[in-house]
Amino acid sequence: MFASLKRKDKLARELPLYFMLLPAVVLVAVYSYGSMAGVIIAFQKFIPARGLFGHQQWVGFKNFATLFSMPNIGTVIRNTVVIALSKMVAGVIVPVAFALLLNEVRSLLTKRIFQTVVYLPHFLSWVILSGILINLLSPSEGFVNILLAKLGIEPIFFLGNPDAFPATMVASDIWKSFGFGSVIYLAALTGIDPALYEAAVIDGANRWRQTWHITLPGISSIVVLMSVLGLANILNGGFDQIYNMYSPVVYSTGDILDTFVFRLGIEQAQYSLSTAAGLFKSGVSMIFIVASYYLADKFTGYKVF
Amino acid sequence: MRIKASMPRKIFLVCNMAFLLIVALLCLAPFINLLAVSFSDKTAVAAGEVTFFPVGFTTVSYQFITNTSKFFMSLLVSLHRTAIGVPINLLLIILTAYPLSKSRSDFRARSLFSWFFVVTILFNAGLIPTYMVVKTTGLIDSVWSLVLPGAVPVFSMLVVMNYMRSLPKELLEAAHMDGAGHVQTLVRVVLPVSAPTIATVTLFAFVDHWNSWFDGMIYMNQIQHYPLQTYLQTVVVNPEEFIRNNTDLSGNLSKYLSMVSARTTGAAQMFLAMIPILCIYPFLQKYFTTGLVMGSVKE
């Protein structure tokens, strides 16, 4: 009897916690889980007028068969992986390099100013950044090509040449994100015990040896962690960025799964086919996300919660 | 102990500083150019003469915008969604992070609810199912379609939850001893000491709402319901359209029309849309490391 009373007490003490969670749980149940249930569209011949959970004709995996028999699906998947992987690799290397160089600056004020400036593009939308880049990179009146012309270089169609487009996307993505990406490495660098450096100086280690034996090992676990977590983005080519800068001339190298899903679904109103393509992306992504969390836990003891 | 820098070290430091200055300039220059273009004469802009300073200084692009209603209509929609959306985000983050920061013995259903939220990061339903749910719940063309589907930012919630979990146990025990319930503990004890992380996620919620354009594009059928960035997107993708659409609006405009181009008015609108961001993020910078890094990465 004492035990049951205690349990009742405990529930009474936990009750406010349930109430706190209630609004968020309801919203997530409707908008996240409701949408997840909505992936049944991929297995139907979906007619929107009949409603999301209305009476629809089931077609099994027919939409997937149609999807994978489309002539450009292979190209789209390849483009996605190429762009995403390049962003992933450069997205670790550049911020780490920047953090290491900035860390050599002694003046705290100078450091702060540099940080404020390089964070700026991160906080702006791809709509604004694309607007700026389209103007800057324009072959005729863009600042970059005018500069290249002065150096005697032929104008480059950064956004109109299929060979240049993916590299332009990767470079501009790094431009937007490297500054803020370095926050976490800078924090790790300031966390290194100064006594280690003092000991190294006494042992006669020069700057390079200090960097090699103290600084790099000091941030290696966070670098591993960020690289592993980056795997989760294997199929994220960056919709906002690419949608605002691509055009049919660069579909051969620039069309990614997300833009493909968008055009199928919203522009061509092929709801079932678009959902099937989206479900393929989400399914593969989920495997990578779970794997990345597992590896992160295994290598660095990182836990999501 | 200060050791005098050696010669190679000095050379390194100078080169390093020069390199960092170039990097910083690369980050800043496009925006300075944007500002210069917005205040320049359209022919100078078209000739590519404008770099960092306005050529043929004029405010005519800004005058043109103040006379077009679409920019201000979309600005109002953005202010509206931000004013509703950010407080809702914040309230839901706090109300979820606190219970989930409890130990399993204090809140037995913790794992269940944690998984409930984390699954939404693991699996994305995709474009069409999400659109259909928003449509089914009757939010099309309503400002709530920009607020409710993303009302619980799970990543931010995890950051706050991890931060709350790292607070010293004694603090919470003391509150408990004093007879404080969960609500009192949350409001009086936990929230005040969580200020750095709350500041960070507030900034993120604000930036998210201010920068979102895709939801406006798919959930709003009428252009007068477009938030600022969605409207800007139409200007960016189809700049000539903007000028043409505004030609027949009022006689007042026609006198500017010959003096502005898509480039100059586009630049002016983009710059105006950047201002709120420029005003906020530098002042919250000191919280990024304490609030974000501490919250997401545990030792």
Automatic annotation (TrEMBL), chain B:
Intracellular or extracellular location(s): Cell membrane
The keyword Cell membrane is annotated on this UniProt entry: yes
Residue ranges of the TM segments: 71-100, 112-134, 146-164, 185-207, 266-284
Primary location group: membrane
Residue span(s) of domain ABC transmembrane type-1: 71-278
CDD domains from the UniProt entry: TM_PBP2 (cd06261)
One Pfam match: BPD_transp_1
Keyword annotations of the record: Cell membrane, Membrane, Transmembrane, Transmembrane helix, Transport
SUPFAM superfamilies for the chain: MetI-like (SSF161098)
Gene3D superfamilies hit by this protein: MetI-like (1.10.3720.10)
Recorded family membership: Belongs to the binding-protein-dependent transport system permease family.
Protein name: ABC transporter permease subunit
Species of origin: Paenibacillus glycinis
